[in-house]
Amino acid sequence: MTEQLLQQILNWITLGSIYALIAVGFSLLFGVLNIIHFSHGDVALMAPFLALALVQTFATAIGAAASPGVMLLAVALAIALTGLLGVLLDLLVIQRFRNAPAMMALVATVALGIVLRELIRHLFPNGSNPHAVPRLVQGSVDLLGVTVPAFNLVAIAVSGLCVSGLFYLLGSTRLGLHIKAVSQDRDAARLLSIAPGRIFRITFFIASAVGAIGGLFFAGYAGIVRFDFSVDVGLIGFSAAVVGGLGSMPGAIIGSLVIAGLDTLVQAVVPNGAAYRLVFVFLLVIGVLVFRPAGLFGRTVVEKV
Predict the structure, then answer these.
(1) Beta-bridge partner residues of 143
(2) What is the pLDDT of residues 109-157, one digit of tens each?
(3) Would you say 96 and 90 are in contact if contact means Cβ atoms under 8 Å apart?
(4) What is the pLDDT of residue 212?
(5) How far apart are CA 64 and CA 87, in angstroms?
(6) Residues with Cβ within 8 Å of residue 271, at least 6 apart in sequence
(7) ∠ at Cα 301 (298, 305), nearest 5°?
(8) CATH of span 2-291
(9) Paired residues of 142 in beta bridges
(10) Rounded distance, CA 133 to CA 105, Å?
(11) For residue 263, with 0-12 CB atoms within 10 Å meaning exposed, 13-18 middle and 19 or more buried, which class applies?
(12) How many Å apart are CA 221 and CA 15, to the nearest integer?
């Protein structure tokens, strides 16, 4: 019983850490741009497909199976390329809705997500089928008498480092101060010689690259990736940000842990819970929106007219 409980706790923290990498991107982009980038999950789930394509390309080039070093290089390049993809989408589409009504940006990014999924489906070899995703980290560790996959520990550790790095960047660096300045008042930031366009591009790169790490860990956790996985992952990441409070980084993390905890609990307790887990998750989201629309850590904004 104790071993099973520890295993469920590990699954909860692992899943929560992965969701947090997606959710903080939603909150970061909303906090800076005041735009809900609904295709953020689709951008993040491009990373596993880019990594698989790069591994195959490298394997063909060297004429042998890819080594762990080659796979690690492919993962690093996939993260960087996903970050650049986020910047490209901002330049081509999203920046045109900076000052537009929120609904226009929402519809545009929903459509953008569909475009990304269909591109994977039609351009990636056998894009409609699931693709196996090998785990870079193999083996297991004995922890408190429980055999723990090393992948889970690495996912938790890397997620913690990424989130800590984001907090440090935003709170203790010049770039972080510039990001906060632009998010609060773009015109005042311009008077201080801060270029909002540059800050937007940097923010998109950071959010997309961190999301890519979450997408890679999610694919490794599931063992496979499909072109439509981004729908569920994106909705869960967005829901975690909403539960915690859009624009709040700590809220996104807490929201991710809450949703991952409910997800894990339902699968462990409810008969055939895997089929119904999202029902319970989104009922929780509805409940939070009904009783606390600003989220657990969000602040209600009062506008005087």
Answers:
(1) 146
(2) 999 999 999 999 999 988 889 999 888 788 878 776 777 888 889 999 9
(3) no
(4) 95
(5) 34
(6) none
(7) 170
(8) 1.10.3470
(9) 147
(10) 33
(11) buried
(12) 8
Q: Which residue has the tokens 């506008």?
A: 303
pTM (2 d.p.): 0.91
- Residue 44's nearest CA partner among 113, 124, 122 is 113
Cβ contacts of 175 within 8 Å, gap of 6 or more = 169, 202
The token pair that represents 118 in the structure block = 């269909």
Tell me the CA distances in angstroms from 182 to 32, 90, 177, 189, 246, one per residue in order. 7, 16, 9, 6, 17
Instruction: Assess contact for 25 and 40: CB atoms under 8 A.
Output: yes
Domain ranges of the chain: 2-291
Which one-letter amino acid corresponds to residue 98?
Answer: R
Q: Residue 194 carries which side chain, given as an amino acid letter?
A: I
Question: How confident is the model at residue 293, as a pLDDT?
Answer: 82
Q: What is the pLDDT of residue 305?
A: 41
Query: What is the C-alpha end-to-end distance of the chain, expressed in Å?
Result: 59
Other Cβ atoms less than 10 A from the Cβ of 165: the count is 12
Residues pairing with 225 in the sheet:
131
Do residues 207 and 28 lie in contact, with contact meaning Cβ atoms separated by under 8 Å?
yes
CB 126 within 8 A of CB 49: no
Compute the C-alpha angle 79/159/200, nearest 5°: 55
- Dihedral over Cα of 83, 88, 90, 95: its sign: positive
Would you state the pLDDT for residue 66? 66
Beta strand 140-143 with 146-149 is: antiparallel
Contacts of 247 (CB under 8 A, 6+ apart): 27, 30, 31, 298
CA distances from 95 to 86, 185, 197 (A): 12, 17, 9
Look up residue 95 and give its two tokens.
């920046």
